[in-house]
Design brief:
By secondary structure, the chain is of the alpha/beta class. Helix content is about 45%, strand content about 20%. It has helices at about 1-20, 25-30, 50-55, 75-90, 120-135, 180-190, 195-210, 215-220, 255-270, 290-315, and strands at about 35-40, 60-65, 95-105, 145-150, 155-160, 165-170, 230-235, 245-250, 280-285, 320-330, 335-340. Helix 5 (about 120-135) links the parallel strand 3 (about 95-105) and strand 4 (about 145-150). The longest helix has 25 residues, at about 290-315. The protein binds zinc ion.
Length: about 350
């Protein structure tokens, strides 16, 4: 277990170095593409949008929860998302919202365990969330623009669901020159402001660039679920090694449910013999400046205790094989610090 925790610390260190070294790239990208990009996605650790869209780390702000289930009626999520929109508006920027679900073409069991591998149900849930965003900010609004996107994890390709009901799978797209892509975005999203179209384009181009890459090693690594980290809270952008972690965001008021589901998936990984017994609970909170650090620390400690209690109540047999740590992550370096 000790070595597993060291592995996580090392992984974070490497990611933090990369994140810091990309600062200028990130600033340059933002100067060229000012639109604030937010993604709502599943807790499944295989989904890493910066990699599959070739964008610098930190450009796409992620919200994660089991199955990519969200509801803007959740008080904490409501405030957090609205703050992000307001901050962007103050800088003169619009917000593009990527509302995502995921599945695998090759094997249903490489799909979304958070939705019992039912792709239809996860698509329906994410479409309802997109509609909720529209309802709140206004269907005709030109500032917050939600888009429904499927992520096919065998090829890491994006599936764009147009507002005209047309669906485009980027893995089988023929016309890939810039002009054709722009007219495709116009066709799919007739209401999308030009600024967002220009900033959506590099995300699509980035995805097209990496679809062709050899994914064989990836398929082997993620044949079926094998996660052993239960990550709870925020600041997990660095934790995207295939099959390592289930990530639960802090937003669901019934946060016990996704924690229980994630613990259940990890337990079934043991039972099937896919991994040896053992779970690391990693409770994390993200802070901006030093003044925030103290309260952030309390959040991480609270979520660690909560996760331990939920696991003990629901799966007492996991207790002997559980190790948990509370950490805080600095948002400007993504460096993690172990608190307890
Ligand atoms: Zn999932």
């Amino acid at each position: 277990m000790e070595s597993k925790i060291n592995l996580l610390v090392e992984l974070n260190k490497k990611h933090s170095e990369l994140f810091c070294s990309q600062k200028l790239e990130r600033d340059l990208y933002r100067a060229k593409h000012p639109t604030n990009v937010v993604a709502f996605k599943c807790m499944d650790g295989r989904i890493h949008l910066p990699v599959i869209t070739e964008t610098p780390l930190g450009i796409i702000s992620p919200y994660r929860n089991m199955g990519g289930r969200f509801d803007l009626g959740w008080p904490l999520l409501n405030v957090s998302f609205d703050d992000a929109v307001t901050r962007a508006v103050q800088k003169g920027a619009r917000t593009l919202v990527l509302v995502t679900y995921h599945f695998s073409k090759g094997d249903v069991h490489r799909g979304c365990a958070g939705f019992n591998y039912d792709c239809g149900a996860s698509k329906k849930s994410t479409a309802a969330f997109r509609d909720q965003i529209r309802r709140i900010y206004g269907v005709e609004n030109q500032v917050v623009f939600p888009v429904l996107i499927g992520i096919e994890t065998d090829n890491d390709s994006l599936i764009l669901h147009g507002d005209n009901e047309e669906v485009v799978d980027l893995a089988v797209l023929n016309e890939k020159d810039e002009e054709s892509l722009i007219s495709m975005i116009h066709r799919l999203f007739p209401n999308m402001p030009e600024r967002i179209v220009s900033d959506f384009l590099p995300i699509i181009v980035g995805n097209l660039n990496q679809i062709g890459e050899t994914k064989k090693h990836k398929l082997e690594a993620q044949l079926v679920h094998g996660e052993w980290v239960l990550a709870v809270g925020k600041g997990f952008d660095w934790l995207h090694t295939p099959n390592m972690a289930m990530i639960v965001g802090p937003y669901d008021p019934n946060i016990g449910e996704p924690i229980k589901t994630a613990a259940g998936i990890i337990k079934s990984n043991w039972e099937s013999g896919r991994i040896e017994k053992g779970v690391v609970v990693l409770a994390s909170a993200l802070y901006g400046d030093a003044a925030d650090r103290a309260k952030t620390q309390e959040r991480a400690i609270f979520m660690k205790k909560l996760s331990e209690d939920i696991i003990t109540q629901n799966y007492p047999e996991m207790n002997d094989y559980m190790n948990s740590i509370a950490v805080v992550v600095n948002s400007s370096t993504m460096k993690m610090e172990v608190i307890e």
